[in-house]
Amino acid sequence: MSVGDIYATDAQKLAVAAAEARRGAAEGGIPIGAALFAADGTLLGSGHNRRVQDDDAAMHAETNAFRNAGRQRSYRDTVMVTTLSPCWYCSGLVRQFGIGRVVVGDDQNFLGGQEWLAENGVEVSVLNDATLIGEMREFIAGHPVLWNEDIGEG
Predict the structure, then answer these.
(1) Are 145 and 122 a contacting pair, CB within 8 Å?
(2) CATH code for 5-151?
């Protein structure tokens, strides 16, 4: 998994985000991962939620992936892949920069702004990967205070 590698399918792209989520969990953080891809499937950047590790409330997975992708001339043809439905903050990032498509790995444990994104012209694909759903459900049950802090209910 390196910047510049090409991933042809949504499942392959989601695997990149899932690896990031597991990396975040191993670091003691919240297991949410994301990756930004070019239209042809080239990985531009990936990242994971780093709120705990960096003591930075703004460092969500999508934000981290976006920053790691570096500056792009345009985001219209990019695809943001995230293991969990994007919160309103991350949905705002998608809209602000005109990211054209979002792939969601799990919208069962949390439903963020993905419907709003779709209503505003962003193509949204929901995969609802059973493994990701189970991993997030387990994390929420084991860390309710940290989870509620992350979603703004702490």
Answers:
(1) no
(2) 3.40.140.10
